[in-house]
Design a protein that fits this description.
Family: Belongs to the enoyl-CoA hydratase/isomerase family.
Number of helices: 11
Strand content: 15-25%
Order of helices and strands: EEHEEHHEEHEEHHHEHEHHH
Number of strands: 10
InterPro entries: ClpP/crotonase-like_dom_sf, Enoyl-CoA_hydra/iso
GO biological process, one term: fatty acid beta-oxidation
Distance between the termini: 32 Å
Radius of gyration: 17 Å
Strand order of the largest sheet: 1-2-3-5-7-10
Protein name: Delta(3)-Delta(2)-enoyl-CoA isomerase
Largest sheet: 6 strands, mixed
EC number: 5.3.3.8
Oligomer: single chain
Length: 229
């Protein structure tokens, strides 16, 4: 949904868990392409959800089916690529649980806000016996500065609540209710939109911050056009 300068991507569906199936990933990619095509100076993407979950990760039934594990990783890779290369600031408003690929989806945004009264960040792969794609671990190194926080998230399967996530620098703020969190996301987006940044330059600077991640994803770091400087 386009609201002025904001593009609001809301994860919905029959299931409250918002698992990332082929159809769900395709819908997200389509929405990101639409936002990119309509982007102007001051555009901002807000990603949020309905229900108890932000996203409970990949649709494991599909991901575990014969021949689909590599397809699952490839599709999710495209979604990560699209967010890292989107020419505008991005804000994840995490209204509920964000697990596995749902946690990854949140971390792909420039800013992450979370509730203090509900929801956890949880990397379930170690508990489920599923290896991590390379870009998962590189993303965690790029976005979470604390070595012990990364260790506990990836090697211990710690379920991280809002206050701890803020203390560890994983999220940028926590609020006590759905309404307060939504308002905080809008206020942050308004502050970002008011700067009227050039989206392509913003994208180049973002990618330059994460060279290892862009290398693993196969994203070349573009050089800005000198006439824009």
């Amino acid at each position: 949904e386009k609201r002025g300068y904001f593009f609001v991507l809301t994860l919905t569906g029959d299931s409250d868990e918002h698992r990332l199936s082929p159809a769900a990933i395709a819908d997200v990619l389509s929405s990101l392409r639409e936002a990119k095509s309509q982007a102007t100076r001051g555009s901002v993407l807000i990603t949020t959800s309905q229900g108890r979950f932000f996203s409970n990760g990949l649709d494991l039934g599909w991901a575990r089916s014969a021949g689909s594990r590599s397809e699952a990783a490839e599709r999710l890779n495209h979604m990560v690529d699209s967010l890292i290369s989107l020419p505008m600031p991005t804000v994840a408003v995490v209204q509920g649980h964000a697990a596995a690929a749902g946690f990854v989806l949140a971390l792909c945004h420039n800013y992450v806000l979370m509730r203090s009264d509900r929801g956890v960040l949880y990397m379930s792969e170690v508990d489920l016996g599923i290896p991590l794609p390379d870009y998962f671990t590189v993303l965690f190194r790029a976005k979470i500065g604390s070595v012990s926080a990364r260790r506990d998230a990836l090697l211990r399967g710690t379920k991280i609540r809002g206050a701890d996530a803020a203390r560890l620098g994983i999220v940028d703020g926590v609020k006590g209710s759905e309404e307060e969190l939504e308002d905080a996301g809008i206020r942050l987006a308004e502050q970002l939109a008011a700067r009227k940044w050039d989206g392509e330059i913003y994208k180049v600077i973002r990618q330059s911050l994460y060279p290892e991640l862009c290398g693993v994803l196969g994203l070349g770091v573009s050089k800005p056009v000198l006439s824009k400087l």
